[in-house]
Fold MobA/VirD2-like nuclease domain-containing protein.
Amino acid sequence: MISKVVPADSVYHTCRYICNKPGSEVLATDGVREFDYKLMAEDFIRQQQLRPGKQKAFFHGILSFHPSEKPSDETLTTIAGQYLERLGIVNTQYSIVKHTDKSHLHLHVVANMVDNNGNVIKDNFTGLRGKKVAQQLTQEYKLIPAIKKDLALTNLENMNEHEVARYKMYMAISGNLPHCNSLNELVARLKHQGIDTQFKYKGQTQEIQGVSFKTGNYSFKGSQVDRKFSFTGLQKTLAQGIKEDVEKVMEAKEESSQPQDAGQVFRKIHSLSKRNSQKTDPDIAGSEKAGEVLKQMNKIFEDLLKPESTEEHLPYEFTHEGYLRKKRKQSHRHKR
């Protein structure tokens, strides 16, 4: 189950949308009339007038379920009620409406942020708190958690052009990122697919602070496409790829201690080092984490190339200690 809190600046338009949508069904209300959206909005507004100075006086949350889930109306009403209660939205008017116009069932929960006694209900961080509450309820009711976007279940036909552009951008970045060795390579791949990458710089410096993507008339910040596609998120993903290659180098170093073809081990390590040396373009070099990983890998590579100093299996006379003993004997003879 997913929670999403959306603006409800006009309770009239909100009530009209949730009640007049094809396939809508009012499951429960408290303090408002349910048979006419105009009367429902009128009831909400009348109570809001107890605190006329209260801005954003209405809460509008959407609870979306997995397409394979079809909970009963009773279960849906209970979940929505607990959702409001855990958000602290109690002793106030609300309306719970079910929509079945999309492949996934979802609920619209509208509530008055001015309670029945005329007190203002706190609305700080309702979006973030709503997500946490939805995660709790998902576990308690053994619903399917929303771990990541499932593009196979995305119905682009039901989206507007803005949403379609964002999802196509998500698919392009997701498909290309695993095959990129640097941010510059990702930029080039996306450019080939008609997506321009733009960077936000700090003041007049060359320090990158953010990234955005543009296709046609639509532009999105990286974090708007997906949280992991922010500039920091992209850096972490690319640095993780370098880290994994460092681990491969370390494994190769361990393998080199075993009897095997030394040339084969050398070629394996050299190939990994050469491939990762290409990841030090200016964008990635700005990442402290990526830089540390590269330093670690270069140190490992240098250590592997150094000849090991050991006297094991050498005849005694060729060891350092044997050499010194021989010199002492010769010195002693000369004194005689």
Residues 277-287 have pLDDT under 50 and may be disordered. The longest helix spans residues 231-256. The chain has twelve helices and eight strands. Strands lie at 2-5, 25-30, 58-64, 94-99, 106-112, 196-201, 208-215, 218-221.
